[in-house]
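Notes, Module 5: Reading structure tokens.

Key idea: the token line is not a picture. It is a compressed description, and you learn to read it the same way you learned to read a sequence, by spotting repeated patterns. We will look at two proteins. The first is printed below with its tokens.
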Amino acid sequence: MTKLFVIDDEREMVDLIAVGLKKRGFSITTFTSGAEALAAIPTSDVDVIITDLNMKGVTGLELCQRVMLDRPDIPVLVLTAFGSFETAVGAIRVGAYDFVTKPVEIETLAIAVRRAAEHRALRGQLARLEEVVANTRGRGDLIGASPAMQQIYQLIDQVSATDATVLITGESGTGKKVVARAIHERSRRKEGPFVALNCAAVPEQLLESELFGHSKGAFTDAKQNRLGLFQQASGGTLFLDEVGDLALTTQPKILRALQERKVRPIGAEAEIATDVRLVTATHRDLEEMVEDKRFREDLYYRINVIHIPLPPLRTRGGDVLLLAQHMLRHYATVLDKKIVGLSAAAAERMLAYEWPGNVRELGNCIERAVALAHFEDIQVEDLPEKIRMQQTRRSTAMSGSSLPELLSLEEVERRHVLRVLEACRGNRTDAAKILDLDRKTLYRKLLRWGVSDD
């Protein structure tokens, strides 16, 4: 239950707010003095503070300043009489999270409280990310605490103890090569080579030579003997990425090499024994390709002894933030920039985004953000436009716990701007002043949201 402090030197106002918010499921502690509230904060587990601005003794502005100094993790909502816009703006500038005008509408206040509580929960998670990243049970560069990734870790542990062939499937960018390398590094073959080939990147006419090697003079450009990848990977692991792109003419040759554990280089008379553990990966549906006669059924069953399906990033909840923080540390070092984390606003946008390019897209986003960042925390403006403009709603989970559903920052901004505009009775000059925007910027936002001059 969200715990609130409600502070106002008018007992009637405190009681009115307390009754209304209790009916909406909040736990309330009331104060009629700013000094009393400040004295109680150090020993209290409070999530959000609601305070009137104009109070005797310690004013709401002074209380807000003290909270920002001593407990910056607690968001403060300030209540201000209609028309006291300068005071409200002053409170926002010293660190208040938001303000609500009097006379108070309880439902409007409840929405603001929920948003502030969600914001605090997210900031708390971000503050713990460094420790979580350091202690996350991962495999090599694999980072994740979601249930889906825990299952992947368990599979890697089981697979690594054997020499069985492995098929890794998943959308592009989910980290299939990282999983393959993790399997190799935990296996008895870890001292041997890890050799990788993207089958889709090699022309069909060159692939056989790449895999099996060739003898000098086997064809026009064969000026010397060349070891194939099966030989280069002997004693270790051969990883064939995008195996679904193999030509039908090449597939039976790979099947034979796996079954007989021998290869014959192009132009050679004798076969050469090999000792490789094969791991393959694809983003294609191989079962469908088998049905359509585009992939050999016997090869499919030979490479699919153990199947590891990688989940897309959009289903991994708070792993997005874990991965982002891990990548942020890496790129901050590479680019020699003092970037320590994500702002809560940037994190909200990243959690709301669907990540069609998965981990690869996230890495691109973080590298760009670190390169453009002007502050120690990544801000919303540092993110790519399609992530900045994200407007979908989505709930998230991290380390087995759940956050309430979050609004995209764009939607939060839209609602807040329209609420301020309504409080100003449609006066855009006053609204722009409160929002600390110039009028042209406000007009552009309203135009984008389809708000007419009426």
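Here is the second protein, with the sequence above and the tokens below, as before.
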Amino acid sequence: MDPDSAEVKAAGCVVHRRGGDGVEVALVHRPRYDDWSLPKGKLDAGESWEDAAVREVEEEMGTRGALGEELEPVFYRDRKDRSKAVRYWLMEAGEDDDFEPSDEVDEVLWAGPRDALERLSYDSDRDTLTRALELIDQ
């Protein structure tokens, strides 16, 4: 399936950093859905997939980083039964960390791979994280 043909287009990142115990990945908690997911969001009109991914990470986490390798896109039906495509990239976390809780994201959790996989609420996010971890030098 072509992501450009989806009714709803979103982009996000698997944000990672080096911690004292190895690689950590960022998860965001969305109070509206009471779920844990990877940072992502819908494209604004005229916005590129890549720009949306960077913007969403900055808005949701308060960090800005450079996009790395693109991951396999995810396709599913959203809560309104529309076709949705999400394109993800790897992103190494930047030094800036200006997270401020909001109605959209009220918590950011940095976790090791095993804990992150257990905490994620959706199988599609677990699949994306699993593929990303194969590419991240651990």
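Summary for the second protein:
- The domain at 3-135 is CATH 3.90.79.10 (Nucleoside Triphosphate Pyrophosphohydrolase).
- The chain has a mean pLDDT of 94.
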